[in-house]
Design brief:
146 residues; alpha/beta; Rossmann fold; five-stranded parallel sheet; 40% helix; globular
Length: 146
């Protein structure tokens, strides 16, 4: 399980810390990269800008993507990923505090694999993130070379 990378796209430092702790507590020992805005996410995934030296041959096993990001929204990041052949099949989980029904609909319309609302209570947040991590990093079988 540890040879696959998870990309966390999260602008809130507190949610980032809670997510990382929950994943570690669940035994998700994969490499986790963190970017903090939509532009950084696109640069990471398309090996541009500050990530131009990153090998594009290895994509993350899953992207945990917040919706309300600075610079470029999570939904716009998702749409761009689905437009490009190299990132079209990368699993994307929307992990958001939004409870707007339109965000749920737009997420799935743009190609999200899953939509998860961030629980408010820490313990439930930790359980939810732990389940996500174990499923996407250990249980899910990734699409290879499609």
């Amino acid at each position: 399980m540890s040879d696959r990378t998870l990309l966390l796209v999260e602008d809130d430092p507190q949610d980032e810390l809670l997510t990382l702790r929950a994943l570690k507590s669940a035994g998700v020992c994969n490499h986790i990269d963190v970017v903090r805005d939509g532009q950084q996410a696109l640069d990471y995934l398309f090996c541009q800008g500050e990530f131009s030296s990153r090998s594009g041959a290895v994509l993350p096993a899953v992207v945990l993507l917040d919706i309300g990001l600075p610079k470029i929204s999570g939904l716009d990041v998702l749409a761009r990923l689905r437009e490009h052949p190299s990132t079209r099949h990368v699993p994307v989980v929307i992990l958001t505090s939004s409870d707007e029904p339109i965000d749920l609909v737009r997420s799935y319309r743009n190609g999200a694999n899953s939509f998860v609302r961030k629980p408010v209570q820490f313990a439930e947040f930790a359980r939810t993130v732990a389940r996500l991590g174990v499923y996407w990093m250990a249980t899910n079988e990734p699409c290879r070379g499609a």
